[in-house]
Design brief:
- The protein has 3 helices and no strands.
- With 93 residues, it is mainly α.
- The chain has a domain of 64 residues.
- Helix 2 packs antiparallel against helix 3.
């Protein structure tokens, strides 16, 4: 009985963590090679976001909300890079 409860609790926690990660809107690389510097910056943002997620996991999310805020800012920076690439595309660059 205890074993089934523990397994259920672990699965529930995994689902919750996965849903929270998805809701956060993890950044992704969506800039092509045409804008190599912007694409590289996006790749570093994705890597940083994952490392912050790892730190949250390792510290049981007890980082005072600062790691979560950092992930929000990384997501925002990723969106701004996408917009920069879009503007460059509009101007034929």
């Amino acid at each position: 009985m205890k074993k089934a409860f523990l397994i259920g609790a672990l699965l529930g926690a995994a689902c919750t963590f996965g849903c929270a990660t998805m809701a956060q809107g993890a950044p992704h690389v969506d800039i092509g090679n045409r804008h190599g510097n912007l694409r590289s910056a996006q790749e570093y943002i994705v890597q940083a976001w994952q490392l912050v997620s790892d730190a949250q996991f390792d510290n049981d999310s007890r980082l005072g909300g600062h790691a979560g805020r950092a992930k929000e800012l990384l997501t925002e920076a990723n969106e701004e890079l996408r917009l920069a690439a879009d503007v460059a595309n509009e101007h034929g660059r």
